[in-house]
Amino acid sequence: MSLALERIGPSGRRKALAGLAFLLAAITAGSQSSAAPEPSPTSGTITVVLDQAQVLKVPDGVATLIVGNPLIADISIQSGGLIIVTGKGYGVTNLVALDRGGQVLTQKVIQVQGPRDNLVVYRGVERESYSCTPKCEQRITLGDSPAYFGAVLGQIGARTSQAQGAIQPPK
Fold first, then answer.
1. What CATH number did the domain enclosing 61 receive?
2. What pLDDT digit, counting tens, does each position of 129-167 carry?
3. Long-range contacts, 70-78 (Cβ 8 Å, 24+)
4. pLDDT of 14 strictly over 80
5. Which domain holds residue 60?
6. For FRET with 41, which of 30, 128, 144, 152 sits at 20 to 30 Å CA-CA?
7. Contact 96, 44 (CB under 8 A)
């Protein structure tokens, strides 16, 4: 495959890779839904997509909420008995709700999955991620090569700084 790509030149390689990315995105989009399934109140598993959040209702009388591994999922407590569960890293952890006496009110498994619209490109051992919704654009995801991750993060940070600088009042 690499010999064939060398023969068609840089412009042809870009077109071939773009076509491949489009094809893979179309296949992925057709076979999977991009939304995580909604957990039912009686379900033992909460499924969250990495870098996304879900709003859940906690049982009455909850005094303490514990997340087994906050590197996988994090919670934010809101008024009205609501919590927001955010996927922070791939994997499985748990959520335990206790009352004031320390009794367990509920236990749930939190499973954090990768995004469904992600296209991953491997160049040897180097890994790059792209979000193809609908056009493939750079996206940093856990597991990307450090150089790619740093370069994209730097671009995002520079863009954010420019936007914040443009709206700051004059000194």
1. 2.60.40.1080
2. 998 888 888 888 888 999 999 999 999 889 888 888 776
3. 72/110, 72/112, 73/48, 73/110, 73/112
4. no
5. 45-113
6. 30
7. no
